[in-house]
């Protein structure tokens, strides 16, 4: 028997050290709720989980972009809805002016009303914006068409949904001649009949703008619904890799705890065996 090197004790200590490391790792997982707390836990799993997390984050931002785009498009649509009401009112007043029962003074009053309504139609175009982006014309002072709007509703730069340009003001709707006439205070019965055609054309143009906005909004909302489904499934896939299974890990912890206790007993016994040498020396 040899007592200078207690091989049995060394083996037991090595096993106990490894068990304690496993026990510590199990405790870390149970306390954090993650099965991967550092790269050494699962290097390939960490790489996959991180990539899935980045993808989910990008998709969620795409969802936020889409929701913001819907809000923007709804602002444009509601503003054009009010402009549509104005055009309907102007059409009714032109019909009223185009009859012999309306006197010249009455037509003058109608012209003033139409002039104010056209001013308000322009005011709506000047005021309608989302976070400084003008929606119905180029800017508060420029009456040209608005800039093309692009929304990234997705995780890549190619996931773009675009909205058509809009010029929903007196100039864009082809009502400059009517505006000039009523601004001068003149509106004859014949002119009232002629301008009805211009109003009908303006209503058609405005309805086209609203149709484009509505179809774009439907496209964005569809993309958002699809992205939300993707984000949920990707997050679930990440959870399978990254999150700890408490049922399995708690069972593993209990097993390692028992092994650690047994290891301590084994070390104790390995050390006590050496004392048997004393009996040989008695």
Q: Which secondary structure elements does this structure contain, and how are they paired or packed?
A:
Elements: H1 7-32, H2 43-97, H3 104-127, E1 129-130, E2 133-134, E3 149-152, E4 160-163, H4 176-183, H5 189-242, H6 246-273, H7 277-280
Helix pairs in contact: 1-6, 2-3, 2-5, 3-4
GO molecular function, one term: structural molecule activity
Protein name: Flagellin
Organism: Halarcobacter ebronensis
Q: What is the top-level CATH class of the largest domain?
A: Mainly Alpha
Percentage beta strand: under 5%
CATH superfamily of the largest domain: f41 fragment of flagellin, N-terminal domain
Percentage of residues in helical conformation: over 70%
* CATH fold description of the largest domain: f41 fragment of flagellin, N-terminal domain
pLDDT averaged over residues: 88
Order of helices and strands: HHHEEEEHHHH
Major β-sheet strand ordering: 1-2
How many strands? 4
Mass-distribution shape:
rod-shaped
**Helical/strand content category:** mainly alpha
Q: Runs with pLDDT <50, length 5+?
A: none
Query: What Rg do the Cα atoms give?
Result: 39 Å
């Amino acid at each position: 028997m040899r007592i200078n090197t207690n091989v049995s004790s060394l083996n037991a200590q090595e096993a106990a050290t490894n068990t304690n490391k496993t026990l510590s790792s199990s405790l870390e997982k149970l306390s954090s709720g993650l099965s991967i707390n550092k790269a050494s836990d699962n290097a390939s799993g960490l790489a996959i989980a991180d990539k899935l997390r980045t993808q989910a984050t990008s998709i969620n931002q795409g969802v936020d972009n889409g929701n913001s785009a819907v809000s923007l498009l709804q602002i444009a649509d509601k503003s054009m809805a009010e402009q549509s009401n104005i055009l309907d009112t102007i059409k009714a007043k032109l019909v009223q002016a185009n009859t012999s029962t309306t006197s010249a003074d009455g037509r003058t009053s109608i012209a003033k009303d139409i002039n104010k309504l056209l001013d308000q139609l322009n005011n709506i175009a000047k005021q309608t914006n989302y976070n400084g982006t003008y929606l119905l014309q180029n800017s508060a002072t420029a009456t040209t068409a608005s800039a093309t709007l692009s929304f990234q509703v997705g995780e890549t730069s190619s996931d773009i949904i675009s909205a058509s340009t809009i010029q929903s003001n007196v100039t864009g709707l082809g009502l400059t001649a009517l505006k000039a006439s009523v601004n001068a205070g003149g509106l004859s019965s014949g002119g009232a009949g002629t301008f009805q055609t211009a109003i009908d054309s303006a209503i058609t143009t405005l309805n086209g703008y609203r149709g484009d906005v509505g179809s774009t909004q439907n496209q964005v909302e569809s993309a958002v619904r699809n992205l939300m489904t993707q984000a949920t499934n990707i997050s679930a896939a990440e959870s399978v890799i990254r999150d700890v299974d408490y049922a399995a890990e708690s069972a593993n912890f209990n097993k390692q705890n028992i092994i650690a206790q047994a290891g301590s007993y084994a070390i104790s016994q390995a050390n006590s065996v050496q004392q048997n040498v004393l009996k040989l020396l008695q």
